[in-house]
Write a structure and sequence with these properties.
Blueprint: H1 9-41, H2 62-71, H3 83-86, E1 89-93, E2 96-100, H4 109-114, H5 135-152
Antiparallel strand pairs: 1-2
Helix pairs in contact: 1-5
Amino acid sequence: MNLSIQFDETKFTAEITAKLAGVKVPVQMAMGEQMRDIVMSNFGATGVDRPEPWPPLSDRSEVGRAYIRKVGRSFATLYETGAMAGAVRETDELDGSKISLSDSDCPYATKHHEGTNIMPRRRVFPIRNDGTITDYSKEAVIDAAKQQLAQSLK
């Protein structure tokens, strides 16, 4: 007696390719949602994955001291009005998800990211100076992709 199973490589590959194409968008969306969650968590008193520590609010001028009195704290949150956090956008497209923050949505957004002579650098995007994503965020986004892929392939 002889038992055998033969796979038609063309049909088998086509079925796998079709299945993977169907999960591409949900996986990309899960990755985008994870990154957006990380960015949003970086607003406030502490952040889950800031690429560098934020300097405290400056008390070196009367304006700085008045601001500290106004907000009742000496640490930065970037969340006094919510304008900057409200300007974080997530755009899902067929080729990927994009998380963005622009000066057109919040006029001082990139000034906080890069810093200026009067505005210290306070990054909410987990991006290092060389433009790469931090290790924590990279792993979190990959984990979100794996979880969504496993769920979508069930």
